[in-house]
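Supplementary Methods. Inverse-folding protocol.

Structures were first reduced to a C-alpha cell string of length 125. This string, shown here, constituted the complete conditioning input.
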C-alpha cells in the first residue's frame, strides 16, 4: 500500500535562485542537496513535512520547459493565512490572490515563486 506522497517536482530556470527563494522567503529547509557538477539534485520542504519538493531544471527531463511559470497544482496549508501573507509579503513574495474566505468555508490565497510558478495556500475554517 502507498503510505504518503514522498516528493513532488517544481521546474525552475535557476536552481540556486529557487533554493534561495524557497529557503529564505518561504522558510523551507533543505532536505537533500547533491551537486554532481552538470547535475544538481535539490529537495526542500516546510519544516516537519514528510513531502519534499524537488527543484528541477527545465533540462531534466527534456521537454519540461512548458512546466515553468504556471499553476503547479500544489496547495499548502497554514493555521493563520493573514499572518503568513504578511510575513511572506514582507520577504518579497508576490501574491496573485490576497487571502479571502471562500464560500466553501476555507481561507484561500495564491502566490508565485521566482519563476512565476503558482501555489495555493489554504487555512481551514
Amino acid at each position: 500500500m502507498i503510505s504518503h506522497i514522498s516528493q513532488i517536482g517544481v521546474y525552475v530556470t535557476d536552481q540556486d535562485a529557487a533554493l534561495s527563494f524557497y529557503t529564505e522567503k518561504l522558510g523551507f529547509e533543505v532536505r537533500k542537496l547533491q551537486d554532481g557538477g552538470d547535475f544538481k539534485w535539490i529537495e526542500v520542504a516546510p519544516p516537519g513535512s514528510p513531502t519534499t519538493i524537488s527543484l528541477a531544471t527545465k533540462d531534466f527531463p527534456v521537454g519540461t520547459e512548458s512546466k515553468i511559470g504556471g499553476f503547479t497544482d500544489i496547495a499548502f496549508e497554514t493555521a493563520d493565512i493573514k499572518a503568513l501573507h504578511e510575513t511572506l509579503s514582507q520577504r518579497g513574495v508576490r501574491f496573485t490572490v490576497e487571502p479571502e474566505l471562500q464560500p466553501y468555508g476555507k481561507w484561500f490565497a495564491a502566490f508565485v515563486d521566482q519563476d512565476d510558478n503558482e501555489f495555493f495556500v489554504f487555512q481551514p475554517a
